[in-house]
Design brief:
The chain is mostly helical. It is built from 7 helices and no strands. The structure holds fe (ii) ion.
Length: 151
Amino acid sequence: MAFTLPDLPFDRQALEPHMSGETLDYHHGKHHKAYVDKVNAAVAEKALGGASLSQVIRAAAEQGDTGLFDNAGQFWNHNFFWQCLAPPAGQRPTGKLAELIDAAFGSTDRMLAKLKEGSGRPFRQRLGLAGPRRRRAEDRLAPRRRHPGRA
Ligand SMILES: [Fe+2]
């Protein structure tokens, strides 16, 4: 069965003014859809039908198929990304995430303040984490951030 483009988990304008409906149309309707279509074409070509997306990513890595690896990785990344966003509704971390945030920053509010403090600096520095580190093997294998249609 072919992969399908998942629906956004919220209305396309639900994140405005931070992220416009037009931006979501672009990243979901164009980028994400292009990754789905490219993965489906490659899966059909390589007889990987029935494989999960994770299995396709692993197979592409094992076969050194960087095109499929990048497209399947970006398909996965976009699936994950939409699940990380939600309209403002006062959400607070709970469970293990809340425990880890409290342990590292003292509270969610302190973590948010720290993020705002350093918003112009690299992400690791914003969180007060150590400087650049050696990339792990799985990071080095991660797909490059690339969008279809861009040079
Ligand atoms: Fe995108």
